[in-house]
Each structure stands twice: as C-alpha cells, then as structure tokens.
C-alpha cells in the first residue's frame, strides 16, 4: 500500500478528515466522512464490526489512500499507528526491545544507531507499559496481552504528536488495561492527540471526544456523554443492554 502524499495537508490545526471516501479495491468503505480530532485530547472511535473504524484509522495514519476528500494531520512528523496485535506475525524474529527501538526509526531513520537519548526513550516506554522484564524475549513468543503492551510501547517510542491505536486494550486483563490506560492518559497530558478504536463503551466514555461510525458513515460526534445516548446505541447496535 502506498502512503498518501498528494491529498494530505499538514499544519498546526487539529487532525481532520473532510469529505473522505476510502476503501479497498472495488470495496468502498468510508463515505463522505468529515470529522475533527481535537488536539491534545483523546478521541474514541466506536461502531459495530465492519463499520469502518480501522479503515478510518488507516486513512488518518496515511497507510490507506483516500478515493476523494482530504486528510489534515498536525505537524510535519508522521503519526504513530498501533495496529491490532493479531496483525503482527508470530514469526517476526524480533525481541520486544528491538520492536520498541523500531519506534525510534521515525526520527532516526531505519537501521541507524540509536543515541543515548533514543535508548532512554525506549527504556522509558518499556517501563511505562510494564514490559521491561520481557525486553529480551521474542515478540512472537509473548502472550496476546504482553504483545499488545509491547506494540503500544513501540507506538509511544515514536513520540508522535498524533497517536492512533486500534483496539489497544481489547481482550486484555485488568492489569494490562490499566497499563495502557495510564500510558494513554499520560500521553494526553503531554499534549499528544490520541485516537483509539474501541468496542468498550466504558472506555469510550473516558475519552474527551467520541465518533460513532455506522456502515462507513459518521453518525454522531461530540463529547461521549452527549453522543453515546440510548437513542444512538439502539440505532447503531439495535438496542444494547442498559449500562
Ligand atoms: N484489506 C482489506 N481488503 C478488503 N476489504 C477490507 C480490508 N480490510 C477491511 N475490509 C472491509 O472493510 C470493511 C470495514 O472494515 P474495518 O476493518 O474498517 O471495520 P471495523 O469497524 O474496524 O471492524 P471491526 O470492529 O470488526 O474491527 C469491512 O467490510 C471489511 O470486510
């Protein structure tokens, strides 16, 4: 897949999509999506399976080209994208430390020798996600939850102004979820714009801003308390139990 260059603007305004249509070969997924991602805040993207959440994240990350519309990203550095752990092969011959060090490539360039500062950033990210003691283990040999924490550590190591995460806490135990929530809160308090896809309404309610997707269209956007109403939940998910 090619990175988008021609239809992207980067400046200091919040990340945004304007009239974006995007998808895969002969399979349009996002239809005329216009949305903003408030700077220095956490945005939750929710919606049923197949509604286009990961596609939206891919467009924002620049790994998926738009068919029409524009993407605006803040700053000149690229965003950090933390994919779902299932998208990483078990056979990848990488230690946890090497995987997190790759996060520094965004600023050093690939295969460059890491500076002392880079190594400090890597050590800090391993520590914050509670995977420092796993640093010399192979990424493919970790449990799903351990691997997910390592991938989030890799995302943090990029020190990007825009951090995108696809279901970072899905299927994790409470301790692993807390590591991730604490790390994301810390990022937000440092001014990072965080965008996370989630199926967890409680997690979405903790965000500052929420987007609801249905069938590739933006159905609602705003503060989670205003957006995740009973009406929206029953329209989108066909009536979910009270929570
Ligand atoms: N690589 C791909 N090639 C072709 N179609 C794809 C590809 N990835 C996703 N799709 C299709 O795009 C649509 C939206 O998928 P997407 O993964 O964005 O949804 P999602 O909301 O993230 O779903 P989920 O909650 O199940 O993760 C689906 O119909 C899916 O089958």
Could you characterize what this model shows?
Keywords: ATP-binding, Nucleotide-binding, Translocase, Transport. InterPro entries: AAA+_ATPase, ABC_transporter-like_ATP-bd, ABC_transporter-like_CS, AztA-like, P-loop_NTPase. One of its GO terms (molecular function) is ATP binding. This protein has 243 residues and is of the alpha/beta class. The chain has a domain at 88-159. Helix content is 33%, strand content 26%. It has helices at residues 53-61, 96-102, 105-108, 116-128, 144-157, 174-189, 201-205, 224-227, 230-237, and strands spanning 8-11, 15-24, 27-37, 42-46, 66-74, 80-82, 162-166, 193-197, 209-214, 217-222. The strands form two sheets. The protein has a six-stranded mixed sheet with strand order 6-7-8-4-9-10, with helices on both faces. Strands 1-5-2-3 form a four-stranded mixed sheet, with helices on one face. Strand 9 (209-214) and strand 10 form a beta hairpin. Helix 2 runs parallel beside helix 5 (144-157), helix 4 runs antiparallel to helix 5 (144-157) and helix 5 (144-157) packs parallel to helix 6. The model is unreliable at 1-8 (pLDDT under 50). The chain binds adenosine-5'-triphosphate. Adenosine-5'-triphosphate is lined by residues 24, 27, 29, 47, 49-55.
